């Protein structure tokens, strides 16, 4: 694995090629250290569920920030729903990869977007039933995910948030390939990624423990954030 990445185009070697993150907590602690300059800015730390939520909770705690989720979902390829051809956010913003544009008809994309929007609306009702999403306007906003293979999900989240005029928009990830980071860079003010391996197969291959995070765990983490003040109802 290679390097930290930022929009100034500088790369710093921080991990040996054969190293992995122990788990999401390990990656979150490293990201929090690199985001420490935003402590005191009351950043809005937005997790991409589900894997990004435990990481964002740790980062929000470390920075004295406010925690919420930004809801996006990948758009699956025809006949292979696990292969992402793009992503959609809860407000309907769609991000399609070049391959997705070639592979999928407009009718297929329209149907897939409708399916995933229903999923996202159900998640919002489950995750934060007593309030709407926290308003990002004028704030330092940090969008957190454990990693990204194509960048589509992170980009959909960033494009949605950009419409709300945050003061600064930061993407923070554990791992992503360089080509995905270049695409993310175009949508963010700053990109911080702990590792950018040239040979990339899946996010999970870079974590010793990459267990699935359940909706129940997400709900519990958001409940804890409300109780300790990192979510302001």
Structural summary, described in words:
The chain contains seven helices and ten strands. The chain has helices at 24-34, 52-63, 98-103, 106-127, 152-162, 178-185, 215-228; strands at 3-5, 11-13, 44-47, 66-69, 72-77, 80-89, 94-96, 140-147, 168-175, 190-195. Strand 8 (140-147), helix 5 (152-162) and strand 9 (168-175) form a beta-alpha-beta unit.
**CA(first)-CA(last) distance:** 40 Å
Largest sheet: 5 strands, parallel
Helix content: 25-40%
Radius of gyration: 17 Å
Report the portion of residues in β strands.
15-25%
Total DSSP E strands:
10
What is the overall silhouette? globular
- Average pLDDT figure: 89
The largest beta-sheet arranges its strands as 4-3-8-9-10
Q: Helical stretch count?
A: 7
H and E order? EEHEHEEEEHHEHEHEH
Low-confidence stretches: 7-18
Please outline the helices and strands:
Layout: E1 3-5, E2 11-13, H1 24-34, E3 44-47, H2 52-63, E4 66-69, E5 72-77, E6 80-89, E7 94-96, H3 98-103, H4 106-127, E8 140-147, H5 152-162, E9 168-175, H6 178-185, E10 190-195, H7 215-228
Parallel strand pairs: 3-4, 3-8, 8-9, 9-10
Antiparallel strand pairs: 1-2, 5-6, 6-7
Give short descriptive properties of this protein.
five-stranded parallel β-sheet; three-stranded antiparallel β-sheet; single chain; alpha/beta; 10 strands; globular
Brief summary of the model shown:
With 233 residues, the chain is α/β, with parallel strands linked by helices.
